[in-house]
Design goal:
six-stranded mixed sheet, alpha/beta, about 290 residues, single chain, Rossmann fold
Length: about 290
């Protein structure tokens, strides 16, 4: 095979997408795994062009594709099949091209679950969870926590209706009891909470001083507190939790774990997670 021949293309479709860091992580993974004919492309695809872009995945023989804003829900109608969890979540961020048949998976919630089990050492089964946020990340996390056996999930969001819709989804698609609440200033986290997840976009670069407006004195050392924000990972939210003795889990680990699941689905090889994490730290300057 010629040295520069690329037989294995994957990538991401999004809009806007130029700032998406996944290329750095996945290309570092290819390099560390010795996959020299693989490339990850960051491709700007408008909402109206998604159908033609998914056709291109098939006829150009891409091995798969990631989807980011605004395509995670819209892509469903172009897939041949999807995982049970992706169907319950109602969104797909990773597609695998299996000989022309497109299989959809959602790795966001699974990446979160891997992190909480492996890095925090917590099994969500029978745990009481509070999730702040009701957007795409929260949706994937709540459904996966429900499928992993969490007993109760309270979804707290600025827009109450979105929290109610997500609670209804979780209650109907998993065995967890779910409830909704409005994120009001000084919201108090119930004492009996085992796991608290910050799943809004507050704190994401450049909003690095931003933090959810909750009562931080309601956090305690019996809680595991997680944030989805990968950049910077040491958010003010996690620092408040750490200061009160809570076990913490950052969004960088979730980003690496969710990328590692896609890497394995595409290549069949266990992802070199250390090299992938280092590449993101270098990229974010941390
Ligand atoms: P969405 O746009 O779907 O949802 C955004 C959420 O944040 C909503 O719940 C929204 O509330 C809330 N929100 C936004 N601004 C504020 C504010 N000022 N105060 C209170 N709540 C606010 O985004 P996603 O769910 O897709 O992404 C959320 C974050 O998760 C992003 O920062 C993204 O980078 C991160 N992420 C991390 C991943 C990882 O692997 N680490 C994977 C995927 C996402 P409302 O409904 O009221 O608007």
């Amino acid at each position: 095979m010629a040295k520069n021949y690329l037989d294995s293309i994957v990538g991401v479709f999004g809009h806007p997408v130029a700032e998406n860091p996944t290329v750095v992580m996945i290309e570092a993974g290819f390099k560390a795994a010795g996959l020299q004919n693989w490339r990850y492309l960051t491709l700007d695809v408008n909402a109206d062009d998604l159908g033609r872009a998914m056709d291109a995945v098939r006829f150009l023989g891409f091995k798969g594709i990631n989807l980011t804003i605004p395509h995670k829900v819209a892509v469903l109608k172009y897939l041949d099949e999807m995982s049970e969890a992706a169907e319950k979540i109602g969104a797909v961020n990773t597609v695998v091209n299996r000989d022309g048949r497109l299989f959809g998976e959602n790795t966001d919630g699974k990446g979160f679950l891997t992190g909480i089990k492996e890095d925090a050492g917590i099994d969500p089964a029978d745990k009481k969870v509070v999730v702040i946020g009701a957007g795409g990340a929260a949706r994937a996390i709540c459904v996966e926590l429900g499928l992993a056996g969490a007993s109760h999930i309270t979804i707290v969001n600025r827009t109450l209706q979105k929290a109610e819709d997500l609670a209804e989804r979780v209650s109907s698609k998993t065995k967890a009891d779910a409830a909704a609440a409005e994120l009001v200033s000084g919201f108090t986290i119930p004492d009996e909470t085992d796991i608290l997840v910050q799943a809004t976009s507050v704190g994401l670069y450049p909003d690095i001083e931003g933090k959810a407006d909750i009562n931080y004195n309601s956090l305690s050392d019996t809680m595991t507190v997680c944030d989805v924000i990968p950049n910077p990972p040491n958010t003010p939210f996690l620092r408040e939790a750490e200061g009160r003795g809570a076990k913490v889990l950052d969004g960088l680990s979730m980003l690496v774990y969710q990328g590692a699941i896609g890497f394995k689905l595409w290549t069949g090889i266990d992802a070199p997670k250390g090299a992938m994490k280092k590449s993101l730290k270098d990229e974010f300057g941390i």
